[in-house]
Amino acid sequence: MRRRLVRAVVVVALAAGTTLAVANSTGPPASRTGATPVGGLPAENLCVLCHNAFPPNDGTGLLEILDVPDIYKQGDTVTFRLSLTRPTPDETPMPKWGFQITAANRQRGLGSGQWLPTLDPPEEMQQIMIPGQAGVFRTRRYLEHTSTSTRTGQRDHAEWVVRWVAPSTDSGAIYFFAAGNAANGDGASIGTDDHIFTAVDSIVPADTTLVDVPIVPVTFTTLLYAPYPNPMTLCSDMSFEIRRGGRVDLSIFDVQGRKVRTLFHGHHDAGPGFAFWDGKREGGIQAKNGVYFVRLMAPDLGRPLVRKVTLAK
Fold first, then answer.
1. What are phi and psi of 48, to 5 degrees?
2. What pLDDT is stored for residue 16 in this prediction?
3. Structural domains in the chain plus CATH codes
4. Pairing outcome for strands 290-297 and 276-277
């Protein structure tokens, strides 16, 4: 019997948000695997923030991490598979499939090892997404699909081969957190037939006995990440992080300084926060193409943090 810390599909509880977006076939932003809290770090967000017509792991499909060996040796290259299965409805002519995966050590939740993205042929191409370098997930790296590796038109099942290089030093037990998207390929997400699934697996160093480790307190930083994508067509990710819990306001303004849309307003606990702007004003009216500003107000800020985003529908 194979030894495993975890061999299960993980259902991640998510806070609901007033966000709209479209399927991002070029790949999601970093830290969207739905990773559970580990080593004192909080849970990651999941793709259902955007693809939110259905809850994650709704029973219609399955994401699996396959062929992960029991143990790793320092510096070894480990090759394994991500397998995503969901029967494609007859009314879906051109399905798309996507994934994101990360590796984090059990002791502190830090990113571990190195991903080796496939770069050729184009239909297998992968990419690495890097979080903002001041954020809580800054040490993690995220391997994911690109627009050419969405298995467009493939029905019922998709699979990707991934490669990971183990750390050069003993980093203890390591978790692999993954998310997969079985999308209908219509270029939308709200109210459409896109389904998100998660999986987690683990690997331990050779000749190591697992022991409980103390949780290291996590220090957060107040920051506003750069909108992604930018320029945006139908949506842009507006992630942020709060050092100390308190009243937070995240809003969109036009170049004249007029508020266009409130994305979040109210109390927010210390830690990461997630929001999307769908390019619409309050009341659902589509905003005009042009330059806008996302502004974050949070405790301990003498002045708001501001990022520019361009809407180009």
1. -70, -10
2. 28
3. 47-205 (2.60.40.680), 223-311 (2.60.40.4070)
4. unpaired
